[in-house]
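Deliverable D5.2: sample structural annotation.
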Amino acid sequence: MHQQLPIPTFYAPKSVCEVYRVPYQQRATEAATWSKKHQIEPAYHDRQKIGLLLIDVQNTFCLPEFELFVGGTSGTGAIDDNVRLCKFIYRHLGTITEIVPTMDSHTAMQIFHPIFWIDEDRQHPQPGTTITLAEVEGGLWRVNPLLKYGLSQDLEQLQQHALHYMQKLSQEGRYPLTVWPYHSMVGGIGHALVSAVEEAVFFHSIARQSPTKFELKGSNPLTENYSVLSPEVLDTVNGEAIAQKNSSLIDKLLAFDALVIAGQAKSHCVAWTIENLLTEINAVDPSLTEKIYLLEDCMSPVVIPGVMDFSEQADLTFQKFKAAGMNLVCSTELNFN
């Protein structure tokens, strides 16, 4: 069994609620010293390659003052999750071979933001609005005509794509289109990793001499991208590709001897990423699910009191993952032999 390490003294649980500049040079020096003190080998020596996939652990989802804070059923979900996540990274510093953080990355004019849609009064939908196939077919919601300039596309094509998009979501059993607040905006503070998590990831990178592999997702204006492995809709009404699945990342994740997954939100980006991963595993070798570990105490579902609650749906989805052979675990219980 791999030895669990102590937690560095600079880490304070309250820091997961703060936005701060990580003192990189200081942490790098401390990480090098930490490695020598605890005899932590460089990651390339690992006989058992263990990956940690961190899904969208960004300010926009993890801090209450930002746009899409994932409070979960407790109201403090993402905060508590990240306290446990940081401890998990530090305790397993000598075990985790590589960390792969995904970054939800958006601009204003995207299909799930208010500016994309207008009603008959030329009003944009409010954040939290669910747009259905019937509403688009009936003309209740249509594409903002001014977007043809910003997106350099014909308005009729955009409208046809919108209808096609809603049809694909319905046919494939996806979530209906939700209009989200502007969030994870590229270049903004909300896009950044939670500072305490960034600090832990950086410390790991130096201590293990293992480059962090950041994966950006969600910049295509014509499709949602809950999963880092594949957008919700891949083609236009004419069958032309607008996006593609992330085959290189899929191959990388499946190459690990064990893959640990945490992040936000359990009901959306985490669930859909794991769903896509399960599809890929089943196409190769269903027994590979046994090497997937889902840190359930380091993720929370989307719950907006009085508006939407995906907690039950998330739990049912994760039971399906368990039935498929994946391991549902707590961060304090997980050890690798």
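Annotation notes: The mean pLDDT is 94. The longest helix spans residues 155-171.
The annotation will be released with the project's public dataset once the embargo ends.
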